[in-house]
Design brief:
It is built from eight helices and eight strands; from the N terminus they run αββββββββααααααα. By secondary structure, it is an alpha+beta fold. The chain has two domains: about 110 residues, Immunoglobulins (Immunoglobulin-like), CATH 2.60.40; about 100 residues, no CATH class. The strands form two sheets. The chain has a four-stranded mixed β-sheet, covered by helices on one side. α5 crosses α8. The longest helix has 28 residues. It is flat. About 10% of the residues have low confidence. Keywords: Signal. Pfam families: DUF4369. InterPro entries: DUF4369.
């Protein structure tokens, strides 16, 4: 109950900060988190993905089960939050707005994130993609069994099913990127297909061309453009 009250106090406090920032015409991002039963001064790292590399951006320390980051970015970024002594990371899209995180210590990737429409959009896209790919889960035990039995026909059939599921996910990803040209998530989605043997450069180019000017300024869209310009 104490942590629940603290969490809502945190939300109210930082919405106030965000409003003050808006009045000062200074757009910044605020990332605020709460972790149950963690010692004070535990390090929390904010890292950013740049050209497939994870680079440090900032470091915070827990005080009374709370950690805070804030700053300013020129365009939306994919960031990861890492916490000393805890495995995994919290991944999210941020822009200059307020984000609130209720940390799941047992599984950081299952932490609850509030306040960011962009991150909500990202999670919705990932959830749908994972729902498609999860159809392969029941096939892997069958694949292992067929391989142990050296059943060539079964192996071929299972491989065909797995391949079709991946094609379905590619079709979903292309459709999302094509139908949401104003979304940074579309650039993220399109970038994930650059190495796919099932997607041609012409297809990628036609979708990229329809992205808005703002989306094209983002890192993912820039990576797509560099790919298209390769000989």
């Amino acid at each position: 109950m104490k942590n629940l009250i603290l969490f809502f106090v945190l939300i109210v406090s930082f919405f106030s900060c965000a409003k003050m920032s808006s009045k000062n015409n200074s757009k910044e991002f605020y990332i605020n988190g709460i972790i149950e039963e963690i010692r004070d001064s535990t390090k929390v790292y904010l890292k950013v993905q740049k050209s497939n590399k994870i680079l440090p951006l900032d470091t915070a320390y827990t005080i009374n089960n709370v950690f805070k980051f804030n700053g300013k970015i020129d365009k939306p970024e994919v960031v990861g939050i890492y916490i000393d002594s805890l495995k995994g990371e919290i991944g999210l899209f941020i822009q200059n707005d307020s984000v609130f995180i209720e940390v799941n210590k047992n599984n950081l990737s299952d932490s609850k994130i509030y306040g960011s429409e962009l991150n909500n959009e990202y999670l919705k896209f990932v959830k749908q993609s994972n729902k498609i790919l999860s159809k392969t889960n029941y096939l892997f035990p069958l694949f292992q069994k067929a391989r142990t039995e050296n059943d060539v026909d079964k192996l071929k059939n299972i491989n065909n099913q797995i391949e079709q599921i991946h094609k379905d996910n590619i079709a979903f990803t292309l459709s999302y990127a094509r139908n949401n040209p104003e979304s940074y998530i579309s650039a993220f989605a399109l970038k994930s297909l650059l190495k796919s043997e099932y997607v041609t450069k012409d297809t990628i180019a036609s979708i990229y061309q329809n992205f808005t000017h703002e989306v094209k300024k983002g890192d993912f869209a820039i990576e797509v453009l560099l790919f298209l310009e390769e000989k």
